[in-house]
Write a structure and sequence with these properties.
By secondary structure, the chain is of the alpha/beta class. The chain has one domain: 3-Layer(aba) Sandwich (Rossmann fold), CATH 3.40.50. It is built from six helices and twelve strands. Helix 1 crosses helix 6.
């Protein structure tokens, strides 16, 4: 009989820095926890990170791991919330880029929403993949070799992407499906 929580025992890193869109962290995080996952905020700064609601400050969140101390072996999956300030800061932070690249090399599933695919461009992860994002990233994704689609959610192998906060319900469903599938596969290896 399957476990009532499809993500029971799954550890998810949530990589953010100041300027993330708060609902893009809290919505997926809460859905992941409801499905049984354990989540941890990973950041290049600390002890807290500042969320935003569009262009206004929202809540501060405790950082659980410094990105310098985080490794893919600490986690089973990666969630990348958006927010233009957050995504722009992370893509120029070498330790954050190296962490995301290490997660990719370890073949762990990744979920990214809104502006978050900017860091995936830095690691060359979008080349040859189908994905979506906030519309202003379209040209960046295409120039990096990805195929940009204007859809609420796009799943491509170990990557699930979404456009914006309005898409969070569909994003959550796709993320849980991907993370559960990969957790099951990892347990049978």
């Amino acid at each position: 009989m399957p476990h009532p929580h499809p993500l029971h025992g799954v550890r998810v890193a949530i990589l953010v820095t100041d300027g993330f869109e708060q609902v893009e962290l809290t919505g997926p995080r809460d859905a992941l926890r409801d499905a049984g996952a354990t989540t941890a905020i990973v950041s290049p700064q600390g002890p807290t990170v500042q969320g935003w609601n569009h262009d206004e400050k929202a809540d501060a969140f405790k950082v659980d791991f410094s990105v310098a101390d985080a490794t893919p072996s600490n986690f089973d999956a990666l969630l990348l919330p958006g927010g233009a300030k957050n995504a722009d800061r992370l893509r120029i932070d070498n330790k954050s880029v190296l962490f995301v690249h290490a997660v990719q090399i370890a073949k762990k599933p990744i979920a990214a929403i809104c502006h978050a695919p900017w860091i995936l461009i830095e690691t060359d992860y979008v080349r040859g993949r189908k994905l979506t994002s906030w519309p202003s990233l379209r040209t960046d994704i295409v120039n990096a070799g990805g195929e940009w689609l204007d859809q609420a959610v796009v799943a491509d192998d170990l990557l699930v992407t979404s456009r914006k906060p309005d898409d969070i319900p569909q994003f959550n469903d796709a993320v849980i499906e991907l993370f559960a599938r990969e957790a099951t596969a990892a347990n049978t290896r």
